[in-house]
């Protein structure tokens, strides 16, 4: 997945990073919205990024 992200980044530039960030946020939107503080949101996102292997979901 990371190699694919690098490929997109090298091809299209920094806008790809924003797209992937938005894709990750949209995938985990429910968990993020249930949190009340920033630290717990960061913990959720860190854990979810480590467990995100569905690169097709990120690219669509």
UniProtKB/TrEMBL annotation:
List, alphabetically, the InterPro entries matched. Rab-GAP-TBC_dom, Rab-GAP_TBC_sf, Rab_GAP_TBC_domain
- What is one Pfam family matched by this protein? RabGAP-TBC
Q: Which Gene3D superfamilies match?
A: Ypt/Rab-GAP domain of gyp1p, domain 3
Q: Where does the Rab-GAP TBC domain start and stop, copy by copy?
A: 1-33
Q: Which SUPFAM superfamilies match?
A: Ypt/Rab-GAP domain of gyp1p
The molecular function terms of the Gene Ontology recorded here are: GTPase activator activity; small GTPase binding
Q: What is the name of this protein?
A: Rab-GAP TBC domain-containing protein
Q: Which organism is it from?
A: Wuchereria bancrofti
The record lists the lineage as: Eukaryota, Metazoa, Ecdysozoa, Nematoda, Chromadorea
